[in-house]
Design a protein that fits this description.
With 327 residues, the chain is α/β, with parallel strands linked by helices. Helix content is 36%, strand content 17%. Helix 9 links the parallel strand 9 and strand 10. It starts with 15 loop residues before the first strand and ends with a helix. Belongs to the AB hydrolase superfamily. Lipase family.
Length: 327
């Protein structure tokens, strides 16, 4: 019997509201928390709040609003923890959130869900055509590698010679006009969310286990959810297909691109929805922990845009990500 698959809706305006909180909070990994007031405010209080918001917007715009992204990209990527960019939401930040959300949505558009297709649970298109086929021909990026993940779950499925499924892609801003607009060359990794039964079972594996991704620093206090870690690190190297783990595929390609463009201003941007946002954060942590983003001259910033992302790790994992500068 063929596995049922589900296509979740991607909400590009995902916001979580905090109750009874007097201060807006900005999550370390880019998820925005805004306070939500209860009860009915007086008209005077509403007027004062509106005037304060307008004043803050005016001050922020005066400082940065008219700046081109090329001069403001580090702040948009979280170099100052998005200070004064969240309330009100800065227009450049809003545009970038939506833009990266579209790269994630492209994963769903290109994913083959037809059980009768030869490309079932893989991408419908070749790398050179994929972004064009999903309506992003003017995005200025080139896909350099497809990424496959292997859930370590033994569930028999029809039409599957391999358990490895297409999970996302690596792309780089290649059009020179796009590079100029962005102010740097952007290395992008985009992940889709949960679709197959294997992946739903993986999501339920919520027990915490030590990450231990860096053999030189196997900190047992840094723990992540076992299902996400399994999906990130499992491989099929012993099978006739010889598929490397999602982790090995990603680290190899990221290292190659960083070395290729090492003399340029660079950023590493990860974007994912649901399960894909968990993989994005694991990769961000992994790159930073291994120091792959460090060059002789600078540390390449790493930013994860999470759309409807679940919990990935424990407080020690969060603290370590902050220490490493993951945004």
């Amino acid at each position: 019997m063929a596995s049922k698959v589900f296509r979740p809706r991607l909400n590009l305006n995902h916001v979580i509201f905090q109750g009874n909180n007097n201060h807006a909070q900005s999550h370390s990994f880019g998820q925005v928390f805004l306070h939500k007031k209860t009860g009915v405010s007086s008209s005077r209080r509403s007027i004062v709040a509106a005037e304060a918001a307008a004043l803050m917007a005016e001050e922020t715009t005066a400082k940065t609003g008219n700046s081109a992204l090329s001069h403001f990209w580090r702040e948009v990527q979280g170099s100052n923890n998005w200070e004064n960019l969240v309330e009100p939401l800065h227009p450049l930040l809003r545009k970038e959130i939506i833009r990266y959300g579209e790269f994630v949505a492209a994963c769903y558009k290109a994913f083959d869900l037809d059980p009768t297709s030869k490309r079932y649970l893989h991408c419908k298109y070749g790398k050179s055509r994929m972004l064009n086929e999903v309506g992003m021909e003017d995005c200025g990026y080139t896909v350099t590698k497809y990424i496959y993940a292997t859930p370590d779950i033994n569930i028999p499925m029809q039409n599957e010679a391999s358990r490895g499924h297409w999970i996302g892609y690596v792309a780089v801003s290649s059009d020179e006009s796009a590079v100029k607009r962005l102010g740097r060359r952007d290395l992008l990794i985009a992940f889709r969310g949960t679709v197959t039964n294997h992946e739903w079972v993986t999501n339920l594996m919520s027990s915490l286990t030590p990450a231990r991704l860096d053999p030189n620093n196997p900190n047992p206090d840094v723990k992540v959810e076992s299902g996400f870690l399994s999906l990130y690190t499992s491989d099929e190297t012993k099978s006739k297909f010889g598929l490397e783990s999602c982790r090995e595929q990603l680290l190899s390609e990221v290292s190659r691109l960083l070395n290729k463009h090492k003399v340029e201003d660079l950023s590493i941007t990860l974007a994912g929805h649901s399960m894909g946002s968990a993989l994005a954060l694991l990769l961000a942590y992994d790159i930073a922990e291994l120091g792959l983003n460090k060059t002789d001259h600078e540390t390449v910033p790493i930013t994860a845009f999470s759309f409807g992302g679940p919990r990935v790790g424990n407080p020690s994992f969060k603290q370590r990500c902050e220490e490493l500068g993951v945004k």
